[in-house]
Write a structure and sequence with these properties.
271 residues; alpha/beta; five-stranded parallel beta sheet; 5 strands
């Protein structure tokens, strides 16, 4: 069976960096696939039809597909996803839209407003973007506006992560990429995933305490508490993804950061 990689690209979750790595290695056998509508949904049937029409494609990236992956005749389907600290993601979205050369409502408002004004505008007009949006992404089954997310959705999202081949977090992108290389080496023996960082903001590297302190300074305690309270499910999903990544790295024999740090310290001591 011909392998096919499907990456679920959550907005501002390092998908552009992974896309660049796939494009460099796979060339024209890599494809992006989304519906024309910004609020569209790519179903399993859509993916099957796309794979049938494009048998040359070996990897697909989509903002609008959701796990679980469909069964596709003649293809071994592997999947990947990155989850992000939802609070760090909010500031990254603002920085991205502020710099984006686009006339979308988000990009326009980001240029007009300071961070607090932008967050207030998003919470008023499209709160789902900033409230447990990753749990929503993982549990979508159709197009349309975001629905209210609850504990049952979190359990469903965790179950779907368990079915994804390569799960990781944006904060540990390098380790996740090493895991992807290891898992994909069998079905894609010619794949070489080079580390590339596109659309990266400073918020990606900040600690949780630094992110929180800056958030309170910029938004005030009330709005910050609102965001924290409405992202508890996403925070849990993030911790689950981090744990899955650690386990898979160990299972695949990929060196973890702790072991790498001690190895580096030992090498420096020997010099």
């Amino acid at each position: 069976m011909k392998p096919l990689l499907l990456h679920y690209h959550i907005f501002k979750n390092a998908g552009s960096s992974f896309e660049a790595a796939l494009q460099q290695s796979l060339g024209s056998s890599f494809a992006s696939f989304d519906s024309p509508s910004p609020r569209g949904f790519v179903s399993g049937d859509d993916l099957r039809e796309f794979a049938r029409e494009r048998p040359d494609v070996r990897a697909i990236m989509s903002h609008q597909a959701a796990p679980p992956a469909p069964e596709i005749d003649g293809r071994e389907v592997l999947t990947s996803i990155l989850i992000r600290d939802p609070i760090a993601r909010i500031r990254s979205i603002y920085a991205f839209e502020r710099a984006q050369q686009s006339d979308t409502p988000g990009a326009t408002k980001a240029k007009e407003l300071d961070f607090k004004g932008y967050v207030d505008w998003r919470l008023e007009t499209a709160p789902a973007m900033f409230c447990n949006s990753q749990v929503h992404f993982c549990t979508r089954e159709a197009a349309g506006r975001a629905r209210r997310i609850g504990p049952d959705d979190l359990r469903a999202a965790i179950a779907r992560l368990d079915g994804v081949s390569i799960v990781g977090t944006v904060a540990r992108y390098e380790e996740w990429l090493a895991l992807a290389q290891q898992i994909l080496a069998g079905p894609f023996p010619d794949l070489k995933l080079e580390s590339k960082h596109l659309n990266v903001t400073a918020a990606r590297q900040a600690s949780e305490r630094a992110i929180l302190d800056q958030l309170i300074d910029d938004l005030g305690a009330s709005t910050t508490e609102h965001l924290l309270g409405n992202n508890q499910l996403d925070m849990t999903l993030y911790q689950v993804a981090d744990s899955i990544l650690t386990r898979k790295l160990a299972e695949q024999g990929v060196m973890l950061n702790l072991a790498r740090s001690y190895s580096k310290a030992l090498e420096e001591r020997r010099k």
